[in-house]
Amino acid sequence: MNTLSAYLIVVAVWATTPLGIKWSGEAMPPWAAAGSRMALAALLGLLWLACDVGRWPVTPPPCLVFSVPWDAAM
Length: 74
What we know:
The protein is an all-alpha fold. The protein has four helices and no strands. Helices cover 77% and strands 0% of the residues.
């Protein structure tokens, strides 16, 4: 993804956020509006990950770097 497309995505998301808040505030309770926005974001993120799976190699060593054994934490 180049810089221009990333910038345009950020502008589109930030520009439509107040409109989404206004529309959802008129149609549903705040907790339902927040939940539906989070569900939509999770769905889009998973779709992005599914389409981009070949470009993000995840091997055990990087995953283990961020894990802390329970015994070491105590």
